[in-house]
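Why SERHL2 isoform 4? Reviewers of the renewal asked for a concrete example.
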Amino acid sequence: MAENAAPGLISELKLAVPWGHIAAKAWGSLQGPPVLCLHGWLDNANSFDRLIPLLPPDFYYVAMDFGGHGLSSHYSPGVPYNLQTFVSEIRRVVAALKWNRFSILGHSFGGVVGATFSCTFPEMVDKLTLLDTLLFPLESNEMENLLTYKRRAIEHMLQIEASQEPSHVFSLKQLLQSQRTALTTSAGSCVRIPSGSCRPTSYSSSESGPIPFSHPQGDMGARSLREGALA
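Here is what the prediction returned.
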């Protein structure tokens, strides 16, 4: 264990998500009731380093870094850092940990996220503990409609991701060979990257076979790409 690690720290975790990974720290007993610890805005999992050793040791505490915080990957460009995305992130994390029911310990904005998750997925949360958290008031009917929408949106998104086929990664040579009936080597050499951009070493495709383009179509597409790169 590193010298600056909190007493009782048993492991550091890296959980895979579509945009990279979520980093987390774990303390306590692996056989104990699970507790998910949520940090505040622009904070990270280290904020629990001094608190966890003071809590009962027979629980299994996992403090996660929200996306874009601590050691976790940033979201993909265009994805907002807001309450909805953080709530869905918790759903991903507990799925990766294989937790069906757990408790939440939330600090500041992490408490807001934890409380919203608890209302959205109440059957999954055993206990909710909030530290320095200011909750936002909503009318009961407005809250019910909002949370129903959030739950459906999150579950639908996860179902779509689970049903997607894995993408296939090719080198330029493999790409040309797989499209040999439609894309000539000379046409493929016209694919250029604008100056200042990183030239890719591989290409990704979710297609299971060659794209049925004729030679004229391939040459026309290559010319369009070339003209766009030179513009």
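Confidence is low (pLDDT under 50) at residues 1-7, 192-199, 205-211. This is the kind of structural detail the renewal will allow us to pursue systematically.
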